[in-house]
Protein 1
Amino acid sequence: MSDTSAVPVLVQSAARDPVEALNSLLRNNGLAVHCTWIPAVQDIADALEQLNPQLVVVFAPSTQQLIDIATIRDRVSAQVPLVVIREDFDPSLVAEDMARGARDTVSVFHPEHVQAVIRRELRAFRVERTLSSTLHTAQEYRHQLETVLRGSNDAIAQVQEGIIVDANSSWLELFGFVDAAGLIGQPAMDLFDADTQVPLKGALSACLQGRWSGHVLKAGAQLADGSIVPIDLQLIAGDFEGEPCVRLLVPAQRQDEKRMATDLADAVHRDPSTGLWTRRYLLEQLTERLATPAPGGVRYIACVRPDKFSAFEREVGVLACEDLLSQFATLVSSMLGPNDIAGSFGGTRLLLLLERGNTRDIEAWSEELLERVGRHPFQIGDRTLQLTASAGVAPLQHAKPDMNGGILDAVAGMQKSRDRGGNQLEVIDHSDQEARVQAYDQIWVKHIRAALMENRFRLVQQPIASLNGSEEKVFDVAIRMLDTQGREVLPSEFLPAAARNDLMKNIDRWVLSASLSFLAKRGPDLLFVRLSRDSLLDGSLVGWLDNMLKASQAEPQRLCLQVTEDAASRNAEATQTLATELKRRHVRFALEHFGTGKDFKDMLTRLKPDFVKIDGSLMQGLSGNPELQERVRSIANAAEASGAQTVAERIEDANTMAVVWQLGVQYIQGYLVHAPEQVVLKS
């Protein structure tokens, strides 16, 4: 080993004498090491993180001690080699030690062998570390080169510790700076509006840690003249003058003939005041979208209109109000999801098609929109105006959606909100009445029972992504039903009828049985399976689960059963019993749709879940709402204090992902990660 610097080595031993003997042996043989004595196994994790050792040596461990040490090493710093030193040198014992995580076992009575093995493992560690570093550096430089080559017209700024340290001419031009002197040394956050700053902080942190992969951040650029312009912001890890930095990149708008033709065609269909689709083209877009079945969740029509707009026209003039309407439309557009459609619907009304996880998400998004409009400063010349707005929303059925009826209901809801003084949301939903008139339940119960008998249910999986860099394969599963023609039916269509007619236990057991087969055959690290209230109250469920675990040979610790916060709150005793019984069987337990109740901290203390899935309604408008951010942070902190890990539900855009990263959430699921896909079991 040509490197003469002291090599950090952790030595776990009950006494200090073996540590000093090992230190002397290695130094006498030309290995300059610094051995740190770790008498207690539980201290190894902290030592691995703080000292960054290149080797762990364990003296005469018991079987359980070795397993515990190897487990800690694998979790904290898996690449560090582990060597066992024993008095007796038994080949069978060597094989057992290696099976439990050691790289090799040597005898204290063979010092030449000890130093040879340690020399070999240190060399292998350094070679592996150097190779990994070289590959990572090569990948980073290749990515940086490709980014630069995409075009010198891209606006690029380099940020270190939140400060702008360099910017190209395109960036200066975009933000309205004459030269770099007025920009270099300034906080990057000063270039963006308040709603952008929290997600940008999270994205910068994630990017520096190598956990931001090509996502585009929706940002509001605050230009030198005080105006705010929406931009798409890319973040790329790099270095500047030898120190890590993050490159902020706004791609140049490249125009080719095909793109120009498309833009010209689009311009014809856009309202000049709002920049949104004109009424006729909007209706064409809605008709085309509604002809395609929704991939999941719910669809709603929304109508939004600024309050007292006529009064503003009299106050500041018609022309100025055109700019006001444009700013209002820009604000609404900034909150749209990736699959939403928006357009002008005549006068000052905006019409939207919203696709979300459930009705609660729609209401949360709409309320956040009204709140954001109310606090937004609208700039007209040298005046700042405050607006409010009214909104109406109405659901669309999955099967044969009535676009005309949905639009009329949404407009009527908006008008009701205005009649009550404005700054309100009105939900118009005739579905319950229609269901009773059409004997909804009677029809669906027949279909559900037939599907159970004919095995026309299918399991779908949705990946859950770690925000901490873990490579675990974690999935959430849900159910789909096939009709007699083989077409997929979403659970929101048949599960309400199943819940009202005592069919949920049957469906839950089908899902659990299929999930255990998936676990046994495909071996994901963790599978979340939800239980209905009926199964929560079913005293025979645990016994049935015992038999299914035995029959399937699935590992119980890979299964996580989840119930809603509402069901757990309303059935506290049954939930406590279930959580206790699952823990005894090493099956994990989760609370989903969590955080909307008043006593969530008490529930965490009582139930001690393994996971908490933060309700998706709290993600609607999260990036621009400090109160929501504080609530999510408090949920994450309370979960951590109780020993639970957190999952953010229904994450659909990079801005929200960046915020939950900043708030300490460990996992995310939603369409930003991946849409649900059918489970395929290999034979």
Protein 2
Amino acid sequence: MKTELLPRPTPVTKPAASFISPDRAAYKWWVAATVMLGAFLVVISTATVNVALPQMMTVFGMNLDEVQWVITAYMIASAVLIPTVGWLGNRLGNRNLLLFSLLIFIGGSALCGLAWSGGMLIVFRIVQGIGGGPIFPMAMVFLNEVFPLQQRGLAMGLFGLAAAFGPAVGPVIGGYLTDYLNWRFVFYMNLLPGVVCMGLVFLVIAPTREAQRRSLDLPGLITLATFLVSLLIALSQGHRQGWDSPYIQRLLVVAVVSFLTFLAIELWREEPLVELRLYGNVAFAILSVVILINAMNFWGTGFTQTILLQRAMDYTPARAGFAILPGALVMAVTTLGAGRLADLIDRRIIILFGLGLFVLSSYWFSYVTLDTPMHSIIWMIVGRYFSISFIFTPINAASLLTLPPEKARMGSGLIGIMQQGLGGTTGIAVLATFLERRTSYHAAMLEQQQVLSPLPWTDILTPAHQLLVQAGDVGGMVQVKSFGLLQRHLVQEATLTAYQDCFLLMTALCVVTMPLALFMRRRPSRVSSAATTGDDRKKPGTSAP
């Protein structure tokens, strides 16, 4: 179906309703500050909740599988809402959609803080996820609208700043609130900034409404929700339940059937819930694949990195958080520079530079040992986070520039589901499963090596034997404890080698994506006359047809 550019409709409200005049040069910075605060709230909420999970387990008597649903429930709820921002924005208007999302997110945060049981906490996390899902893609939409074409990279740099600063300070803030106050304050901390953000949205952003209303694609919504829920549950639970378990296999079958049904419905309808025809744009489709794989790399290696520090290297949560903090702060700062650079030179060069750095830093991580000092670990993390800035920012800017202006909101929703939903969940699931299997493999190989060639292990047994004797152990107890220490050493070595394999896997996956960046256009252009003038910024108070 060919897209035609129609005359802009009459504004629903006057631009003068906003707090600052849209005609002023500072207006875009007011909008940027407003939507960045909302995006920051969503990101930091996710980072702080992870730190508070052990205390939730103690308070509500939840086991590890149960408390995992505190994360999974939020993730699924937000993922289901992200692709619907196109229809919701059409029905409510962009400003109203952001206001309602913030209101639900704040209300869900308050309810999570008041939760009286583990089950109700999970239910309230679903409410919070429903509100948080649309906030991230809508932030991209508003930045895309108010910044001119030649500053679109800078706009995505600002977006990346909000996305990166949350993981940087989230673990530190969450750890402090949990240790010195209560885990409930992890949710209460969202209330005041959330109310401030709603006030700014109401005062700064003028309300708009599209002239043509779209009908609700209910069959598409049902099949999409079924697909996402079943797939994300399978991905998040597969490594624990076993991928060959009937429960996981049934979920995967439901996901495949619902996805095929969803494709048939969306391609058949004239007004689909999700415009899959956008993937007919080759540049957008290729960038979507790169975004998906990059999200798998980022979230997967982040998960592996955190578990490696705390479980294999015995870092405390606070020490692990401070080890990650410098890298996250570097990422937060460099996203602005990378965004501005993307406006000046070929984006393909920047993306290839970022991917190359990510390959080197991930490969460097594959050499980590139990004796690696903390300052080396910090530099490894800094290298990874620094490289992400040169991937995340230009790709997000380029992806929306491949679409007509009136498709930007739908495109941002599709990008959001790649980054926050499928990419993150798939990356964590793949690496969790790969880590478990490689650990078992290396443990079996080391045990076999011990049986076939016991002499090399005397370097470990002899000092252990002497240490136990000095501690007062005698007779057969020394022998038993010595072999126990040897087995512990074997498990540590097998686990560490498995972590190294995980980083090698992500390194290879990143290398595969590098040629895809070459298919990008040097300067993606809008399908509109505004693209030729270098300023496609829509005046607030107007809307695309």
Protein 3
Amino acid sequence: MKKIDKLILTSFAGPFIMTFLVVVFILLTQHMLKYFDDIIGKDLGWEVLSQLLFYFAIFMTPVAMPLAVLLSSLITFGNLGEHFEITAIKSAGISLLRTIRPIFFFVLFLTGLAFYINNNLVPTAALEAYSLLYDIKQKKPALDLREGAFYNGLPDISIKVNKKFPDGITLKGIIVYDHRKNDGNKEVTVADSGRMSTILNERYMKFELFNGYNYTEGANNEREMTGQKNSKSETLTRSKFFKTQVVFDLSSFQLSRTDKKWFEGNRIMRNLSELDIDIDSIKTEVLQQELNHYLYKPTYFSYFNKDSITMPEYLREFRKVRDSINRFRHMPKEAIEEERAARQQEAQTRTAPANPVAKPVNPIVKAERSPTKKIRKGTPLRSAVVTDEPVKTVMPGASDSLKSKVNADSVFMARIDSVFSMPTRRTTVQAATNMARQVKSQVLNSNAAIENYQKERVVFEIQWHKIIANSVMCIAMFLIGAPLGAIIKRGGLGVPFLISIMFFIIYYLLNMQGEKLAKQGLISPMTGIWAADVILLAIGFIFLRQARADARLFDADAYRVFFDHVGQWFKAKRAGAAV
């Protein structure tokens, strides 16, 4: 490695590490402020808080790394330009592209690292962080008895303390209401003073009460034994004590962990392969819903099953694949082999030449085409299907059984004609209306389910593209920061920080708007997510071209000279018009 490459890399490595840590800290602080109310007052240990901060820090990495690359590249090349080191490098015959090449390869490595973090570490960190945060939200606040106020944090227990001494243990003027029997304020304990402490690894709280009374209101014991309860027979019992102990369970104050399998279905907790499986499953559900329209269509019509709408070819293919999978899934291996051999034999039979021998014609019964349609014999009236099959007539010399069969068909047709000639009843119309409403409701519900599946599929596709697009954004930010730093020629954290914040806001707005349009279905998920990367890459190439040409984009004198030329041109034009 040449000395110039070492100089550039060492100038970039220090600012990158510093800016990355600063950006992660800022984003982590901003993110944790949203859950401040859920965390404070829960008496969480440092172990739990450190785990939560660590997981959320990894979760912030996809956003922090592109911003750190932009800010560090601006600082690096701004410092080189401010100390005229870029000028010296160019005077030695080394182009700007050759100067930024070592950092570009390092940024490519960071891009691969960012993809690995986004695809492997971030889903795991999100699962751990949000499952832990859910358990923290479910945890009750720490036990905090306040003077003169009832505390209802314990299940079915209300405690009031008139005075709490500074040691946090000694109490005075204690009232305890026990509602664990769910029958009102029928058990009350009043004590002059007491002490509060936790036992058995803080799983239980023990109250030592002194000089008090225990009041119990309830039914007569004799009547309770015989099952006779009456409000008029209730009794009040008062017992005095000089010292007693009351123990309360504090299990609800412990942090209990929920099984992580209930959180694994969220899109931010899935990697690319898992998202592919989710997207494929959603597409299968959509095809199944569409196929149900055609499979259940015969049940919608009671008397007339003909329909000009045929099943699309892609649904036919999906049905074949689904049926074959379901059939072979439950078949033993021997049956599968037999099925395969039978299919091969059937395919060979199809390729054999057709038999030229014609099928003999029955001389007894012949078919004649009738101008009227006929309903098959034996078909129920509700499921009768109107067909164009030929009407059978009896030829001379036929048997008596055949004649009786034809006569029965004629009688059946006469009954059918009489049914069709009957006037329409109100109950029939009402039944048809109810059936139409039922069919409409089923179709609307199926369409709503398909729409929900489509929205869910778009969300998973957006997350799939974000994993890759956030990694590629490191290259776009570097192509903006390096040329821009060479043009500005300002180091430090002042101007580079402002410029990096401006471009980060542009990236955030473009990404947010593209994701919003993709969720609304106005554009595809790929277009919505990759639009920000493409736009910023184009801006980066423009800045790179301007930096190679030593453009003075941020030099006030250049703009002052430009406007002076424009003013002189207008004056000359006015003078020519006056002459």
Protein 4
Amino acid sequence: MRFKFLLFILLFSALHLFAQNPPKTDELQQHISAAETYQISGDLDNARIENRAILGIGLQRIGNLLLEEGKYAEAIKILNKSIEYQDNASNRTNLAVGYLRSNQLEKAIEEARKAIVLDDKYASAHYILGNIYFTKEDYQSALPELERVMVLAPDFEAARALGITYLHLKQLDRARLLFDEIQSTFKKESPEVHILFGQAFEQTNYPLEAERSFKRALAVNPKQIKANFFLGYVILQHGGSDRLGEAAAAFEKELEISPNDYFANFFAGAGASTENKHQVAIKYLQKAAQIDPARSEVYLFLGQSQIELNDLGSAEKNLRKAVELEKNDIKAKSQARRTHFLLGRLLLRTNRKEEGEKELAIAQQLQKQSLDNARSEINQILGQVIAAQSGKPTDANTIVSEEKVSLAQERKTEIGKIKPYLANILAQSFHNLAVINVQKGQIPEALENFASASNWKFDFPGLDRNWGIISFRAGQFKTAVEPLSRHLKTTPNDNLIRQMLGASYHFVGEYAKSVETLKPFESILTTNAELTYFYVISLVQLKRNGEAIPILNKLSEVSQTNAESLFYAAQSFMILGDYERSAKEFKTVIALAPNTPKANYYVGQSLIRLNRFDQAEAFFTRELEINPSDYLAKYHLALTLIERKVELEKTVSLLEETINLKYDYGDARYQLGKILLEKGEVQKAIDQLEIASNSDPNKDFIQYQLSIAYRRAARKEDADRALKRYQDLKASTRKVDSPMGNNEE
């Protein structure tokens, strides 16, 4: 039987003021103020609109903070949720950024395009879409998006990205014109901007333009940091052997400005090594190794120069150091081939043939993965090093996917304050929406919103109480337990919640907790028959009948003139197995309120268990007069006739009516199948028993009867299979209901 719920009044909390003051009045605060006004005035429709707007903005801001922290998967989840509440260009663009930074480029493109459809004038969407295409090296598609940005909201980064896109598309004149226009926006000529342009020219294979830009930066400011370094690098990479001296001179000038610059020292050393000035090279390379001892390439070039000077012991030490560091650098493939080759040659020279040949074999294996000649291999190594330089000239305008993001401590602290503030706002708005749902009778939506509020702030004031009450009243007892138990821990004197929690534990089968929760009410339980029922039945389930019976006796005693209370007592006696007492009390219920639903049915059930089938028949008949569509009463009325072997036609009719009311009622079809089999109507019997078997596959008696029917139909294999199933079920420890239907309530 489904017990009726405890009838309590749910008190909705007033709209809470937010716990913290925001840093300033903004769009979010405007919606918060509007939501409060509408909810206080009872304008639920507008309150709902404003709370949804709050959620759209709040979730977006949380998502953006997660992007900033490098938590891309979480950010994507939150930003997708924000779109459910506020589908606009801003939210779609932020989601595109999340997908881009997690390298899901196609999804990023899809979201950026949706953003543009929503608002074609939203410059950030065009910029992100352009960046995505740039990341995919689809410069033709990137071009119109970045040009659109320059029309809508021109800024330095967008202009630089567009300039690099022009260069990739070999539109050099347009790039020059754009760079000149960017430079003209500054009050005075900027050497830093010339360096950025030079990097763009170098990475897109315009070395002469790059060299001019770096030289122009030096003309504006001869002591400009990095200008000599990048100039030296361009000359080293593209100038040929006859310009190695120029490259070296540029690196030396950089070192005059920044003597502890790793890259300047390394490239000065690499250039000197290439010119066979190995003593000079070693000086610079050793300094570079002191500055950053964790970089593998410096040990390779250092070892190479030491070999040339026949300092084989030092060379071996540095080459082995390079090998060790290269193991953790998947980008150092070309470098690793050269390191193993030089180490192998050195080992052969020092009469360690086996070890040397092993190193050469590794180098040969790596060589198969690359067809580059020695000179381009060195260029690759140098290019790989420059790519790690600050500013990443190879793709400076793209949004880079990173697994770890390094934030300044000050920003971390700031985010640590903003996120709880926003979480509180989100919890409030989800809670408000849930209250609105309840007032509109939208219970499933209310429960979903209460759960969402708890996800953001589980201890939000009033949340657990409201969530628990609504879950309980909706019959969602498993859901109700957690919020009700949390609330009771903080407010142990809330008797309403204690009653609901105790009943919820009973319904989910946690009987010990039900008893523990309801124990404080034990002395006054009989004033609440329904609660007494939950308590007593929980005791019975725990096999504590000795505690249960006195409480039941008292309940019965005080309820002799109260049909509703006595009903619970009678039902409890039945579960205890005291069928005489159960029948007696139910008859009293009937005398007090003759049309009480199920009272006659339970008398009949008790009498069946006392084997008084003739007496039970009258009570089931009376139950059907009260409720003709009660299929359980029909079945058990038929059962009283079956057990007495009387009125076969009426029995069949009752079973057929039962099946019409409940098609998959296995016990009724089983009994009908047995009767049909006894009448010799084998196929009809099989039809009924097969449906019974499908409805209740774990009832052994159905399988046994089905095996008999199959055997009479000469279906030996089917009969054997059904018999085997019967034997397996019989041997199992699983509790199986009897055809008497004693489990039915």
